[in-house]
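User: My collaborator and I are trying to settle a disagreement about how two of our proteins should look. Neither of us wants to argue from intuition anymore, so we agreed to look at predicted structures for both before our next call. Could you fold the first one, then the second, and keep them clearly separated?

Assistant: That sounds like a sensible way to settle it. I'll keep them separate. The first protein:
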Amino acid sequence: MPDGALESTERQFLSLLDAASGGLNIRLRLFSMPDICRKGSAASHVRKFYSDVEILWNSSLDGIIVTGREPVAANLVDEPYWERFTTLVEWAREHTYSAVWSCLAAHAAVLHCDGIGRIKSSTKKCGIFDCSRAEDHRLIAGLGPWFKLPHSRWNGVSETALKDRGYRVLSRSEVGADVFVKQHQSLFVFFQGHPEYDSETLMLEYRRDVGRFLKGESKIYPSMPRHYFDINTSAALEAFREQALREPHRELLAKLYGLLLQAKTEASWRTDAIQMYGNWLEHIATQKGLRFYTENKVVRSDWNKTSVVPIRAVNASSSSYLERHVASEERPRRTASGH
């Protein structure tokens, strides 16, 4: 994620994992790729709290969440971190039970794995969208036939191309394939949207993008996030847009901030996001439990996925990891211990 969103993204994933854990003990660890240039307070934050992703290559962890950032190169393969990113993808195939690839990381992962390029839209796909269930899968168990998720992106990947290369599209919306998966040795989960967002994230992104226009850093006035602001705020922001297009200058920023302070927003997708990430944690715990019983030749006909001990989550702004302990007894017990 960009420098300005570094700490807020950490908080969003931590909050979501905590809510989805169902009482499991979640511990956060952070990893970053040294090829990503950070400045100012973000660079200081990474130096203080993040470990180098290189330490993972000789490790086996249970899960990983990889987030994205705005690209600096025209082609993803020309990004300075590309070689290290592809190493991470290959490592995750063999050394995790499941990996989540979020937004740009999803696009980069499918490009590396199956040569599926992303397609840029003429307008930014930004807002809260109704997603329809495309097929049943444990990741979306407990969700209805329709659920909401935020999107904020210019690019997307073709659903047809995904299906042709063996991906299972679990949900779709008016802005295309939403959640999709592919089973390697690890279950790869891809989100083109952002279930981790909190209620104000889209507003802050919109404020940033309008600010770029008013400062002359962008020639495009951003579209208002769809299905997001209340009616009064939407009307006020549309009137502001007309004024800004007539007389663009940075002094208008104060007025914009004032309008957005009065905005009413809510995370209407939160319950569904918690359900999905809860299902993801449960999948990891179940796979870990099955492996434990297989390796220890323990046969229990009444074993079920609720008897697995806590998971420890590790989120990195470049990568986020989940580790978990299984008690070395015939009957698993809940414990807060960890590596």
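The second protein, kept apart from the first:
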Amino acid sequence: MPNWQKWTVATLLLFLVACTAFVAGFGIGRYVSPAYRPIAGVTPEELKNEFGLFWDAWNIVEREFYRESPLDHHEMTYGAIRGMVESLGDAHTMFLTPSQRVMFGQDLEGEFGGIGVTIRMNEQGQLMAVKTLPGTPAERAGIKPGDLILAVDGKPIQGLDTAQAISMIRGPTGTVVRLVIKRGTEEPFDIVLTRAVVSLPTLESRMLEDGIAYLALSEFNAKAGAGVRSALKDLLAQKPRGLILDLRGNPGGYLHIAEEVASEFFGDGLILFERSPDGAETRHSVRPGGRATEIPLAVLVDGGSASASEIVAGAIQDRSRGVLIGERTFGKGSVQITEQLKDGAGLQITIRRWYTPAGHQIDGKGLTPDVEVPLTEQDLQAARDPQLAAAVAHLLGQESP
């Protein structure tokens, strides 16, 4: 390998070791990396020894590996970066290829290339379709609520988390994705779909029977704060008896949007606090001007409710502002930043952990609902929603059905 190429790769890897990065739900924010800076606590000699080991391995591969075509040094570099990041043992610190980094950014802006199906993991760790969005490839292909997605492009889904599964299904518009679907007791079958631009409906709002207002938020993206404020204005003008905030399947998003949304339900006080590795704490308090600070409130959550969703739900639960109904949440209680690399790839890096107002750590634990109500595959197939029914019953002061 020519010296110039070797030092190009070395410079990239040195830069990666020095990176600190981006504030995230399952992805929050995109920022450009600062210039390289010295690595605290690492001497040049120690660094030289570590990279000497790396180059020993690289040179052995160059010299000994049997191949019938030239080695792809760019992919080898990506593999080295992935290995470095995976060695940290943090599921939320990850390497993103240029296309993945763009996809994450599009998602947070509310538009992306995909098939138009909302999903969740069931208790068996299987990816389950919850609903399809109107006019999308998933709806046209006949995917139904309760369908299990067993594999994507020949790769099994079992054992992956929701974010990993979503990244496999999404991709550039116009490209093809093949899903293996299991429906009820039928034999698994293939569905081939062409990805299209999917405009994610950030929220849904309406009045239910018995004077209950309903507001569902699908993601804390750039559109969510203004959308929630507008929806609450319209709903509250109808003098509802109570409000249901549906955060089921909401994977998170921007931290500052979570603060905006949470502030709509409190007059003042703490929403969350963050803790850095050195023990320093940053407190995030309610912003004034909330519209729904007094109305009786129920929040729907499930295993797909993560990060920013857990920030809002955790504050509401800790401060007894409302009742949580549904299933245990995902358990994403860390803060990420993202660094863009020179070729457009990126690193998502955990930099802090956040805690609820009462000091509960969410990461790896999640939130336990005040009223636990499961939602089964049979419920989805029969178009039943016992969790929503339980929320309505609670707000009406009745026993859950």
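Some points you might bring to the call about the second protein. The two ends are 70 Å apart (CA to CA). Residues 44-64 form the longest helix (21 residues).
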